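Inverse folding, one chain.
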């Protein structure tokens, strides 16, 4: 019994630490990480003209709602089911967009709404870059 309790406590501390790590990123370093995203997205003091939606102020935005972008039906469905971009959802999404949306809609009991694949095919394969990337995205809020 003691082992199980210790193990559970350790897991909870790890999860809490990982969540805190996302909040402690370096926005300047994150701007460099964002260079991986620049072929499709813009963020900061810029406007339109990219393949993907503008990510300025994306943290706190309802998914699939940036006015000047034509989202996939699946991304719109996720937004309609309540997906709002926060540190965790952004981190999970950029590591596997299709997998993330499928899980999100399945968890909402709406897997049938995943009628197409998301437009974003890029995956950030190094999770250690997430805190900095997210700190940069948070810094772009107006």
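Residues assigned per position:
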């Amino acid at each position: 019994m003691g082992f199980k309790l210790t193990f559970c406590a350790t897991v909870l501390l790890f999860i809490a630490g990982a969540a805190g790590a996302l909040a402690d990123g370096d926005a300047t370093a994150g701007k460099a990480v964002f260079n991986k995203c620049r072929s499709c997205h813009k963020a900061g003091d810029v406007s339109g003209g990219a393949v993907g939606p503008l990510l300025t102020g994306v943290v706190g935005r309802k998914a699939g709602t940036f006015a000047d972008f034509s989202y996939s039906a699946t991304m719109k469905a996720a937004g309609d089911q309540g997906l709002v971009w926060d540190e965790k959802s952004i981190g999970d999404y950029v590591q596997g967009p299709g997998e993330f949306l499928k899980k999100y809609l399945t968890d909402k009991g709406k897997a049938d709404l995943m009628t197409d694949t998301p437009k974003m095919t890029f995956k950030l394969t190094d999770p250690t870059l997430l805190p900095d990337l997210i700190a940069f995205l948070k810094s772009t809020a107006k």
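The radius of gyration is 16 Å. The domain at 2-139 is CATH 1.10.760.10 (Cytochrome Bc1 Complex; Chain D, domain 2).
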